[in-house]
UniProtKB/TrEMBL annotation:
PANTHER family: ATP-DEPENDENT (S)-NAD(P)H-HYDRATE DEHYDRATASE, ATP-DEPENDENT (S)-NAD(P)H-HYDRATE DEHYDRATASE FAMILY MEMBER. CDD domains: YXKO-related. Residues 48-75 are annotated as: Disordered. K(+) binds at N96, D164, S208. InterPro entries: Carbohydrate_kinase_pred_CS (IPR017953), CARKD (IPR000631), Nnr (IPR030677), Ribokinase-like (IPR029056), YjeF_N_dom (IPR004443), YjeF_N_dom_sf (IPR036652). This is Bifunctional NAD(P)H-hydrate repair enzyme. (6S)-NADPHX binds at N95, N96, G97, G98, D99, D205, A307, H420, D499. Binds 1 potassium ion per subunit. In the C-terminal section; belongs to the NnrD/CARKD family.
Length: 557
C-alpha cells in the first residue's frame, strides 16, 4: 500500500536527507520545480513544443547564449501578438514559493513568456526560496502581489498556464480576514472571464489554501487541473471534507507524485492508501492453508430480508466457505424462496442465536442491515457480541449501539463498525463535532484523526464511509480507500451498497482475514466492483462483479 504523508512526516524526511549530507535543500527544490515542469508537459504534451515553436522566448535564450543580437524590449501589445506559450506563476512566502521560482525559470529557459507574482516580502523568504528568487530576478521582472494586476495580465492576452505556488505543506493559519487576503477573490474572477479557454491551473504540492494533513479548505483554495506533489502524496490529497468551503480532492484535479530522489524509507504510523498487498493476494489464491470459514448473517423480519440476502451473497462471492442466513421464523418462507447456495437457520430470538453460536464453526457474524431497532434486535446484537466472534456491525446495529452504553461496551477487538457520516455522528458525537468545527489553523483536525480516535474508543476497527473511506484500528493503523480520481465511482452511492460491503467484510472475516485487513480489502473490492460494472449499477450487481475483479487482481504481476 502507498503511504500518504503528513506535512510533519514529509518535513522530517527532507530534514533527515539534508542533515545526512545526501542532498541540499536547494537541490531538492530544483528537483521539485523540475518535477512540476515535467508533469505539466506529460499532462499536456501540446505545451511542451520546441523552442522554435514557442517563438521569441527561444530567441531570448539564444541571445543570452551569445547566438544572436538581443531584441529590443517588447511592449505588452507585442508580447500578446508573439506566438509563444505564456504562464503566470504565483509564488508565496515559503519554500512552495521557492518551487514556483524554479518553475518560472525553467519555463522561461524553454522560451515561455512568464510573469511572476510574489505574495509576501522577498526579504523574509527562507534561504533556498530566496536563492531561487534571486536567480529569477537576476534580469527578469517580478510583481508584488496585486489582484488587479494579475487579472489584467491574464486578461490582456491568452495564457496557457497558471502555476499556484503560494502555500504548500506549510499552511499554518487561515488567511487573515482583511485587505491582506487580496489573492482570495482572484480565482472566481479569472474563472468567469476565462471560462471556455481558460489557462491550465497547476498546483505545486497542494492547491494553496488546502491543509495538506486534513484536506480542509482553510479558505481561498485555487481549484486546479493538476496537482504535482513530491516523494509521496499527502493525506489532504485524498480526503474530501464537506463544505462550505469543500476541500481536498475536489480542488486537486489530478494528483501526480514526482520523485525528488528521497529514499523510500518506512514511515512509522503513516496512513496508507488501500490497495491489496501481495500477502492479501496469497490469501485469495491459497486454497489449502486457510480455512474458508462459515459466515452467519442476521436477517430482519418479513419484508425486510433483502438487505441481509444481499450481504450474504456478498459474503459468499468474496470467498467465505459457507454462508448461513439467520432468519426469524416469520420470514423463513420469504428467504427460502430466494436463496440457493446460501443456507438458512431459524433464529427467533437471542436465545436461539446463542444456541446457533454454540457451533464454533460459525467464525464470523454480519449484522445490522434491516435488523430492526427494538429490544429483540438489541438482544441479538448483545448475544452476537458476547460470542466473541469476528463481527461486522452496520446500519441498525450501529444505531442500537448509540442507544445503549452497555451494548457499546461489549464491542471487542474482533469487531468492525461501518458507519456512514450520520451514523458516525450518532456514535461519536463529540468527535464528529471536532470534525465539523470550522478549522482555525493548520494542520486541521481530519477524518483520519476522527476515525483513529473513534477506533481507539470503540476498541475495534472503524470504517468511516465516504468517497474517502477511512479505516482505523485501535492501535493507530489507518488507511484511506479512495473512490476519487481514477477510481471515482459516484454510482456506488446506491441503495443497499452498504449491505453488500457488510457482506464482503463478513466473508473475509470468515476466511480468516484480521479485522483491519478484512475492512480494507472489502472496501477496496467494493469500489473495484462498482468500477467494473459502471453507471447504472444497483447493489445486487456488486457481488456479481467479484469473479472478474478477483481474476484481474490475481493475475496482477
Ligand atoms: N527543502 C524543503 O523543505 C523542500 C520543500 N519543498 C516545498 O516547500 C513547501 C513547504 O515549504 P514551507 O514549509 O516553507 O511552507 P509553505 O511554502 O507552504 O508556506 C510557509 C509560509 O507561509 C506562511 N503562511 C502559512 N500560512 C499562512 C497564511 N494563512 N497566510 C499567510 N501566510 C501563511 C508561513 O508563515 C511561511 O512563511 C512544500 O509544500 C514544497 O512545495 C520542495 O521544494 C521540496 C524541498
Ligand atoms: K500550492
Amino acid at each position: 500500500m502507498t503511504e500518504l504523508l503528513t506535512s510533519a512526516q514529509m518535513r522530517a524526511i527532507e530534514r533527515a536527507a539534508i542533515e545526512s549530507g545526501e542532498v541540499t535543500g536547494l537541490e531538492l527544490m530544483e528537483r521539485a520545480g523540475r518535477g512540476v515542469v515535467e508533469a505539466i508537459f506529460e499532462e499536456w504534451p501540446e505545451l511542451a513544443g520546441t523552442d522554435a515553436d514557442s517563438g521569441a522566448g527561444g530567441v531570448d535564450r539564444l541571445a543570452e547564449e551569445g547566438g544572436v543580437a538581443p531584441r529590443p524590449a517588447a511592449s505588452p501589445q507585442d508580447i500578446c501578438e508573439q506566438k509563444k506559450f505564456r504562464a503566470v506563476v504565483l509564488c508565496g512566502p515559503g519554500n512552495n514559493g521557492g518551487d514556483g521560482f524554479v518553475v518560472a525559470r525553467l519555463l522561461k529557459e524553454r522560451g515561455w513568456e512568464v510573469e511572476v507574482f510574489l505574495y509576501g516580502d522577498p526579504e523574509k523568504l527562507p534561504p533556498d526560496a530566496l536563492e531561487n528568487y534571486e536567480r529569477w530576478v537576476g534580469n527578469r521582472s517580478i510583481h508584488k502581489w496585486d489582484d488587479n494586476l494579475i487579472e489584467d495580465t491574464l486578461d490582456e492576452c491568452e495564457h496557457d498556464l497558471v502555476v499556484d505556488a503560494v502555500f504548500g505543506t506549510g499552511l499554518t493559519r487561515l488567511m487573515p480576514d482583511d485587505t491582506e487576503r487580496t489573492w482570495h477573490g482572484f480565482v472566481p474572477r479569472v474563472f468567469s472571464w476565462h471560462q471556455k479557454d481558460r489557462p491550465k491551473y497547476v498546483a505545486v504540492d497542494i492547491p494553496s489554501g488546502i491543509c495538506s494533513d486534513s484536506g480542509r479548505n482553510l479558505e481561498g483554495a485555487f481549484p486546479t487541473d493538476l496537482t504535482v506533489s513530491f516523494h509521496r502524496a499527502k493525506i489532504g490529497h485524498y480526503l474530501l471534507p464537506k463544505g462550505p468551503p469543500q476541500g481536498g480532492a475536489v480542488w486537486c484535479g489530478k494528483v501526480v507524485v514526482k520523485d525528488i530522489g528521497l529514499k523510500a524509507s518506512y514511515v512509522a504510523g503513516a496512513v496508507r492508501l488501500c490497495d491489496p498487498t501481495k500477502s492479501t493476494l496469497t490469501k485469495f489464491s491459497d486454497t489449502h492453508k486457510y480455512s474458508h470459514g462459515h459466515a452467519l448473517i442476521l436477517s430482519g423480519g418479513p419484508g425486510r430480508t433483502g438487505a441481509a440476502r444481499m450481504a450474504a451473497r456478498g459474503a459468499l462471492r468474496v470467498g467465505a466457505g459457507l454462508v448461513t442466513l439467520a432468519v426469524p421464523p416469520a420470514a423463513q418462507a420469504e428467504v427460502a424462496a430466494q436463496v440457493t447456495a446460501i443456507m438458512l437457520r431459524r433464529v427467533g430470538d437471542a436465545t436461539a442465536l446463542a444456541k446457533v453460536l454454540e457451533d464454533a464453526r460459525f467464525n464470523a457474524i454480519g449484522l445490522g442491515p434491516a435488523l430492526g431497532l427494538d429490544e429483540e434486535a438489541a438482544a441479538l446484537v448483545a448475544t452476537a457480541l458476547e460470542a466473541g466472534r469476528a463481527t461486522v456491525l452496520d446500519a441498525d446495529a450501529l444505531t442500537l449501539l448509540t442507544q445503549d452504553a452497555a451494548l457499546f461496551a461489549k464491542l471487542h477487538q474482533n469487531c468492525v463498525l461501518t458507519p456512514h457520516a450520520g451514523e458516525f455522528k450518532r456514535l461519536f458525537p463529540d468527535i464528529a463535532a471536532k470534525l465539523e468545527a470550522a478549522p482555525l489553523k493548520g494542520p486541521a483536525y481530519s477524518k483520519v484523526d476522527a476515525t483513529r480516535e473513534a477506533a481507539k474508543r470503540a476498541g475495534c476497527v472503524v470504517l468511516f464511509k465516504g468517497p474517502d473511506t477511512v479505516i482505523a484500528a485501535p492501535d493507530g493503523r489507518c488507511s484511506i480507500n479512495s473512490a476519487q480520481y481514477e477510481r471515482a465511482a459516484t454510482w456506488l452511492a446506491t441503495a443497499g451498497s452498504g449491505d453488500v460491503l457488510t457482506g464482503f467484510i463478513a466473508g473475509l472475516l470468515a476466511r480468516g482475514f484480521d479485522p483491519m485487513q478484512a475492512a480494507e480489502t472489502a472496501a477496496w473490492l467494493h469500489v473495484e466492483c462498482a468500477l467494473e460494472f459502471g453507471p447504472g449499477l444497483i447493489a445486487e450487481d456488486l457481488p456479481e462483479q467479484l469473479p472478474n475483479v478477483l481474476k484481474r487482481l490475481l493475475s496482477r504481476p
